[in-house]
Specification:
Pathway: Carbohydrate degradation; 2-deoxy-D-ribose 1-phosphate degradation; D-glyceraldehyde 3-phosphate and acetaldehyde from 2-deoxy-alpha-D-ribose 1-phosphate: step 2/2
GO molecular function: deoxyribose-phosphate aldolase activity
Family: Belongs to the DeoC/FbaB aldolase family. DeoC type 2 subfamily.
GO cellular component, one term: cytoplasm
Main location: cytoplasm
Helix content: 25-40%
Structural class: alpha/beta
Strand content: 5-15%
CATH topology: TIM Barrel
Oligomer: single chain
Largest sheet: 8 strands, parallel
Strand order of the largest sheet: 9-8-7-6-5-4-3-10
Shape: globular
Number of helices: 12
Number of strands: 10
CATH superfamily: Aldolase class I
Length: 353
């Protein structure tokens, strides 16, 4: 990815964030899991178009770089098991269906508490510190049931908001929806940007709206969904990523899962390069969340490899990396069972709830 102009970085930079405490490492035949760090808020900056207006993205080079992740960058045996457990810890276990009920959310919360079957956890040597998912993501009206079902678990509840998935309701209504979700107990808010503002290059309007949404979040972390499948070009993806971070987004997220094209590795690479550039300008660490279309353990490994190679070890933790998924968890559990037993079970043996 080539940039013709990056503007002038901030005069003083904060040191790179230290790796959080949480780790999953192979030790003989067992795996060890320890505690989890916290993600400092991104305060944002004034809108600085000079940081991104002259950006150029080499599409073929981006695609070639992304294509390397699923091939030669592989991990095997106990190392693969460790990476898959790490992926589980980074999943935002999600239900965003029109027929969601408190009962469904309760069952999903039970799976979030124990995402990997007990016998597999014991065989992996994790019984003393069983892994949990990164968060449970639901619609605003399902936040209260999710909070109740997850009480005492330490698992945060994330809520989509702002007219998800289109993001085209009037701004006062979008802000009211954020406040409602926060009042119900949501600790993270996944907002949707107005894609028209990207397509028309109206960066002031995009910045002002996201800034207002961040203020409405209060103490809740804000994850900005760019709906990259609607943005047409990787240059637009890069620019929208930068504006969202300048406006104070704590995470940038690829997709709602409702677009025709959702998370892809080239799009993710573009967003991660923007995230890295923003960190160089400001010294702030911003999180990343791919979502939509990620269904297999192989997908999880590819995105973990992308984060590790592009951003380093700190971005393999749930405070800086999340995967928006539901069906992926079942396939990861299936692969972990194969590691433990040497046999593959039917995917239907690994229901989500």
């Amino acid at each position: 990815m080539d940039k013709t102009d990056k503007g002038t970085p901030a005069a003083s930079k904060k040191p790179a964030p230290a790796a959080p405490a949480l780790s999953v490492v192979p030790t003989g035949s067992a795996l060890i899991v320890s505690g989890q760090g916290a993600h400092a808020r991104n305060p944002g900056t004034a809108l600085k178009p000079e940081w991104f207006e002259a950006i150029e993205v080499n599409l073929s080079a981006t695609e070639r770089r992304a294509a390397t992740l699923g091939g030669r960058r592989t991990v095997k045996k106990e190392y693969q098991a460790a990476w898959l457990v790490k992926a589980v810890q980074c999943i935002d276990l999600t239900t965003l269906a029109g027929d969601d009920t408190p009962g469904r959310v309760h069952r999903l919360a039970l799976k979030a508490r124990r995402p990997i079957r007990e016998d597999i956890v014991e065989a992996l040597g994790l019984a003393d510190a069983p892994p949990t998912v990164g968060a449970v993501c639901v619609y605003p009206t399902m936040v209260a049931p999710a909070v109740k079902a997850l009480a005492g678990s330490g698992i945060p509840v994330a809520s989509v908001a702002t007219g998800f998935p289109a993001g085209l309701t009037p701004l006062p209504q979008r802000l009211a929806e954020i406040r409602y979700a926060v009042d119900q107990g949501a600790q993270e808010i996944d907002i949707v940007i107005n894609r028209a503002q990207v397509l028309t290059q109206d960066w002031n309007a995009l910045y002002d709206e996201i800034r207002a949404m961040r203020e409405a979040c209060g103490e809740a972390h804000l994850k900005a969904i760019l709906a990259t499948g609607d943005l047409k070009t990787l240059r637009n993806v890069y620019k929208a990523s930068m504006v969202a971070m300048m406006a104070g987004s704590d995470f940038i997220k690829t997709s709602t899962g409702k677009e025709d094209v959702n998370a892809t590795l080239p799009v993710s690479l573009t967003m991660i390069r923007a995230l890295r550039d923003y960190g160089e300008f400001t010294g702030e660490a911003v999180g990343f969340k791919p979502a939509g279309g990620l269904r297999t353990a192989k997908d999880a490994l590819a995105w973990l490899a992308l984060m590790k190679e592009e951003l380093g070890r700190p971005w393999l933790e749930p405070n800086l990396f999340r995967i928006g998924a539901s069906s992926m968890l079942a396939d990861i559990e299936r692969q972990l069972e194969h590691f433990v037993t040497g046999r593959y079970s039917a995917l239907t043996h690994h229901a989500l709830a």
